[in-house]
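Before surveying the methods themselves, let us examine one representative protein, pairing a chain with its fold in token form.
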Amino acid sequence: MSDTFQFVEVGGSAPRVQQQWPSIIVPRSAIEAEIERLASIPLPATGRRASAISHPRNTHEVPAFAPGIDVTIHVVKPGESTPPMARSATAVDMCIRGSGVASIGPREFGVERFDVWNTPSMDPVSYRNTGQDLFVRMSYSNAPLLEKLEVHVTESSPKPVASNESAVAEGGPRARDQAESIDIGNEGAKLLGYEYLVDIDVVPSRPLLWPWAEVEKHMANVYNRDRSYTGRHLYLLYNPATERRMGTSHCFFATIAKYPPDKVDQPHRHTSAAINYYFEGHGKSAVEGQRMEWEAGDLHFSAPGWAVHNHGSREKGFCALTIQDHPLQIAMESLIWQETLKSPIVKLGSQRGFQTNIGEMLRAA
């Protein structure tokens, strides 16, 4: 590889055509077979039984199921526990079989089938199986994106993240409170001193748990909405640390959908990629004209970024966990969204979003 830089003339070049990864389904049978394979092998030296699902279009050495997103199956056998590990990636997990205990940073909580939780960056993490069955979780992280940036930091013997809050708590002033803040013009532009870069206001990032036993109690609300409802039959698992970015982690949102029978969404598109794990029922999708059928236990790369797609339920309805890199896209000001193909293209987070008919339905009720 040459160590000499190059100038690449781009002024006369047309924009590069984006290469969407096609939508694919990993069937339940393949996932279950891989779980059993992981359970059958000797425990690796790392202390972790794990298998990442790599999309056939992925050419990077790091597995990815969608560009910038990995999906990893983790198996912990009865009596086993994983050694603590910390990394700069954030994650959202769902337990898909058995039960166990998650230790994440300062928190420890039990998890059962279909529970969902988030893992903040650099929190020491370990899991142990306290039951009789395999403890299996499906984990979604932004590790492939960080790997591409060459900034994925991992620690196999992590220590709790240190805090520099003691001086302030003891009454010492913050350096940033004494740094320059100079107005430039009258529209909000400023010059700020260096201290603003290294002492950012803190929004605590905590591991949170959404137990299925609690979430399920509310799912009838969306399931029973009339088929004339123009929104999606789902709830967002919201983490307040993500603020206006509407996330479950700082990178992803997770939603739980419960669709009534024979409900079909309008075709739409967005730049955030979407991955669905169907855990009840069955249904169909159309993605860029490709028609696909799926059932409970299938994992579906259901929406490549900016692909036209829609989903529909069959006679039993369905439940699904959907992961999208929505908060990341909002932070980058790149979340372009078209709610129907007749709707305007909107930059969500910077422009007014779309309205559903929820108000009309509530008034009619």
Q: What stands out?
A: The radius of gyration is 23 Å.
